[in-house]
Amino acid sequence: MKAHWKYFLYVIRHKYYVLKASRKLKVLIYLRLLHDWSKFLPSEWFPYVHTFYKKDGSSQYNETKEFAIAWNSHQKRNKHHWQYWLLTWDRGEEVPLYMPTKYANEMLADWMGAGLAITGKDNTYEWYQKNKINIKLHKYTRNYIEATLVEGKELSKVERLKH
Fold first, then answer.
1. What are the angstrom distances between the C-alpha of 122 and each of 47, 55, 59, 148?
2. In sequence order, what are the residues at sequence separation of 6 or more whose Cβ sits closer than 8 angstroms to the Cβ of residue 49?
3. pTM more than 0.85
4. Separation of alpha carbons 152 and 109, rounded Å
5. How far apart, in whole angstroms, are the C-alpha atoms of residue 5 and residue 120?
6. What is the pLDDT of residues 71-86, one digit of tens each?
7. Are the C-beta atoms of residues 54 and 60 closer than 8 Å to each other?
8. CA angle, 64 as apex, 59 and 69 as ends, to 5°?
9. pLDDT tens track for 82-111
10. Nearest to 112 by CA among 156, 69, 51, 76
């Protein structure tokens, strides 16, 4: 039961930070409220709990086949994941599709919310720089994401200087 409680607290903390970041990014209110709703479904909940927490509630990372299936389902149910917009042809070719701005902004808010919920810091720009080689985005979506991240990084510098 402790593992479930710890995971519940994490999901709520993540949703809180995504909600805050979503306001800055002007994400539509219905997307803010429905963000990651599928994590509460048993098909995602149980594999996530068992992957990230031991029975006593202590942290772990134990990736299983069940988690891989749950993570794939989560990506395909939620349009704020870049994987949702990745078309895999039967011939094996992968083609990134254009991601509408409303979902790109929610994706950015998701990345910010994850960083804040896990580390307590908004390290989105640094995280993206480290991981962008593995993130398959349509060229227009990538340009938008990168411009928005740079703009946010510059804006946060200005805000720090004010205080």
1. 27, 29, 21, 14
2. 3, 4, 7
3. yes
4. 12
5. 20
6. 999 999 999 999 999 9
7. yes
8. 115
9. 999 999 999 999 999 999 999 999 999 999
10. 156
Measured CA to CA, the distance from residue 21 to residue 122 in angstroms comes to: 10
The answer to whether the CB of 105 falls within 8 A of the CB of 51 is no
Specify which residues 88 forms β-bridges with: 94
The label of the residue with tokens 């927490």 reads 53
> Which two three-digit tokens encode residue 31?
């997307």
* CA–CA separation, 129 and 124 (whole Å): 9
Domain ranges of the chain: 2-162
Dump the DSSP string for the chain. Answer: -HHHHHHHHHHHHHHHHHHHHHHHTT--HHHHHHTTGGGGSHHHHHHHHHHHB-TTS-B-----HHHHHHHHHHHHH-TTSGGGGEEE-TTS-EEEPPPPHHHHHHHHHHHHHHHHHHHSS--HHHHHHHHGGG----HHHHHHHHHHHHHHHHHHHHHHHH-
By DSSP bridging, strand 94-96 and strand 86-88 are antiparallel
- The two structure tokens encoding residue 79: 């349009």
